[in-house]
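FAQ: What does the model actually see?

It sees only this:
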Amino acid sequence: MQYESLDSFLNSGQSALSKGPVALIFAEDETEVESTLHHHLGLGFKSVVAFMPAEFTLSDDLSARVHRVTLRCAPRTVVFDAINRITKAAPSVWMYYCYNAEYLFYPFCETRSIGELLAFHTEERRNAMLCHVIDLYAGDLTQFPNGVAPDQAMLDSTGYYAHTRHDPAGHPVERQLDMSGGLRWRFEDHIPYERRRIDRIALFKTRKDLILQPDHTFNEAEYNTYACPWHHNLTAAICSFRAAKALKSNAGSAFDISSFRWHNSVSFEWTSRQLLDLGLIEPGQWF
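And it is asked to produce this:
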């Protein structure tokens, strides 16, 4: 199904939003759009909605399986505005959002669907799930100058840090952390301060009064917590080429970076087990 605008989608595409979980995927460019859509379709989302300009191409197979909405995803505030409009239009639905060349992984995702994951999370009285954005990158920038190489992807095996989050008055915020690591940490001189965090509440249950803010947090404090007060909860990861793309496409950094590899780079195995072993996702009480 194809919609000529977000307004058209909200007016006539309610069937795509009637039952979750729903994946909202925003294509900033044409890099790995189809692999991103295929990956999330394979996780079992009830609906996958792809937002992209009209000139982007999509195979007939994918066109038949996703809801395509014509939208130019720039400036970056367009994405947040779209998510907030959809949130108000479809309350009490589990949703997920990401960009092209980003891939969701959660514990045991090879054998368990996204619906099973969120059913368990809901039973634990959680309405949102913390995701860590784990930077992927090409090991050889001579061969892959845009930094994107799914078949030869690498990630950092160490170098992830949690910092206590503070409110505007400087007080620590309960069960909230600012996470850093990956390319945004190693090449922080090229990354604006407000873009260096790698925590994102990418899975959430919609409410009419819920607002996604430009820093990827919500106006409801409990949505931004990593766990409930009584035990650890599930977390997920979004394995993402987005930082690598940005660093190799921006004039201020492209020519300063000859390689993303360092001594703690490892090949990405495209499995949840690797992410569990590295401590990048948390199974909580889900066994």
